[in-house]
Amino acid sequence: MIDLYFAATPNGLKAKLFLEEAQLPYRVMPISLSKGEQFDPAFLAISPNNKIPAIVDHDPVGGGEPVKLFESGAILLYLAEKIGRLIPKEIHGRAEVLQWLFWQMAGLGPMAGQIGHFNVYAPEKVPYAIDRYTRETARLYGVLDHQLADRAFIAGEFSIADIACYPWIVPHEAHGQNLDTFPHLKRWFDSMATRPATLRTYQDVENVYAPKHAISEEERRVLFGAGKRA
Questions:
Q1: Which fold has domain 91-202?
Q2: CATH 3.40.30.10 fits 2-86+208-224, yes or no
Q3: HSE of 208 in the Cβ direction (CA atoms, 13 Å)?
Q4: Is the N end or the C end of the chain the one with fewer CB atoms within 10 Å?
Q5: Of the candidates 35, 39, 2, 6, the residue with the CA atom closest to the CA atom of residue 19
Q6: What does the alpha-carbon distance between residue 141 and residue 198 come to, in Å, rounded to a whole number?
């Protein structure tokens, strides 16, 4: 059994999507970010960076003590190696998947996250930031579109690269992007959206990038400020 500490952010959905694709037994441990539950000492013992997702694998390969893990990219890699699927064993294929996993972690996620913040959550419009992150996110969408021009999946075969990237394309409207501008990316996105595991993952999940109702200053402080940690 795997405990998944979860909120419905793109990074949280990456871990959930993997577990659904792999059909590993897991239970969701909800973390309310707006209530500051990510700062609870019990959660910090698993995820010292006070971010979701995090997992506890109670049945690690080889037995022994449960494995605690934070950082969504590390979780995807760990779980793929645990089941021996969704990342190639052959060196060239493995390298291809890893570079796109790290591309998502270092580029697509941070930049798309910034424009999502400034478009949806920021208390005031900041034109320079909106322009800067919209343009950079468009560039990254273009990189992915080019990669998908001659293949069904990002690294050739379906892998953790696709699982990592898909939840960051779901909120494309909040990112200020029109998928019709990226036809290869759109084809891949539509294909990913119809996978049974994707449908299960997103069933009854909150859209955190929907046009937001007003949030309180306390919620804003907890979500985007110093939080509860001294």
A1: Glutathione S-transferase Yfyf (Class Pi); Chain A, domain 2 (1.20.1050)
A2: yes
A3: 18
A4: C
A5: 2
A6: 20
How far, in Å, are 6, 99, 112, 134, 222 from residue 106 at the CA level?
21, 10, 11, 16, 24
Which DSSP letter does residue 30 get? E
CB 33 within 8 A of CB 52: yes
Tens of pLDDT, residues 121-165? 898 999 999 999 999 999 999 999 999 999 999 999 999 999 999
| Edge-to-edge order in the sheet of strand 54-57 | 26-30, 2-6, 54-57, 67-70
Give the separation between CA 103 and CA 161, rounded to whole angstroms. 9
pLDDT band at 206 (very low <50, low <70, confident <90, very high): confident
Distance CA 72, CA 106 (A): 12
- CATH 1.20.1050.10, the chain: domain bounds: 91-202
